[in-house]
TrEMBL record:
Pfam families: MRP-S26. It is found in: Mitochondrion. Its main location: mitochondrion. The keyword ATP-binding does not apply. Belongs to the mitochondrion-specific ribosomal protein mS26 family. This is Small ribosomal subunit protein mS26. Residues 104-158 form a coiled coil. Keywords: Coiled coil, Mitochondrion, Ribonucleoprotein, Ribosomal protein, Transit peptide. It comes from Papilio xuthus (Asian swallowtail butterfly).
Length: 212
């Protein structure tokens, strides 16, 4: 079993090293002990300054050349990709156009078949409607002819009672021998009293007649 002292001996150097390597985060303010401390600016000789300037200019020149080289390579690659993509896009567009044309032809054929079927159905319905209408007209015409024939037969039967110049004298004598009075009266109870000269009984006469 590992003792407590041996654990401390092993971990203590690591903790001290981590503490020494620790730096203050950037978002913390300046320590109070270093607020008024002004670091001394390093003094560089003229020869060293000229050499540093030359090295810096050489570095910038080389970096510009590298950037230009990569920029030109990127433009070449981009143009190559665009040309290849344009050819591929044209091919894809042609294939898509052909596929759309096939789909459109299929739809047109389907719609034409449906239209022809609908036209046949509508024509059949129109024929059935015209036939039914003709049958209805024929039935109505036959009914009217039958009705007219019945009326003609009735009028023929009644024609025997018509007054003609031949039986005019006979009709006059018959009317004089059998006079008909079309005058009549109705009381409150709905009873009819035929004839112009028929007396209408009073309430007392009706009561007396009912008592008898």
């Amino acid at each position: 079993m590992i003792s407590h002292n041996s654990i401390l001996k092993r971990t203590l150097p690591m903790l001290m090293q981590c503490a020494e390597a620790h730096r203050k985060p950037r978002w913390l303010p300046v320590a109070k002990s270093k607020i008024f401390r002004i670091p001394k600016r390093p003094v560089i000789s003229e020869e060293e300054r000229i050499e540093l300037l030359r090295i810096n200019n050489n570095y910038k020149t080389q970096m510009r050349a590298i950037k230009r080289f990569y920029h030109e390579e990127m433009i070449k690659e981009k143009s190559t990709l665009e040309s290849a993509s344009s050819e591929m896009s044209q091919q894809l567009e042609a294939e898509e156009w052909e596929r759309c044309v096939k789909i459109n032809d299929t739809w047109n054929a389907q719609i034409a078949a449906e239209r022809e079927e609908r036209r046949k159905k509508e024509l059949q319905e129109m024929e059935e409607f015209a036939l039914a209408r003709m049958e209805a007209k024929d039935k109505e015409l036959r009914h009217r002819i039958a009705k007219a024939s019945e009326e003609i037969r009735e009028q023929k039967k009644l024609s025997s009672t018509f007054i003609t110049p031949e039986n005019l004298e006979e009709a006059i004598d018959k009317a004089l021998a059998n006079p008909v009075d079309y005058n009549f009266a109705i009381d409150l109870q709905g009873q009819q009293y035929l004839g112009r000269d028929t007396p209408i009984p009073t309430k007392e006469q009706k009561k007396a007649a009912s008592n008898n």
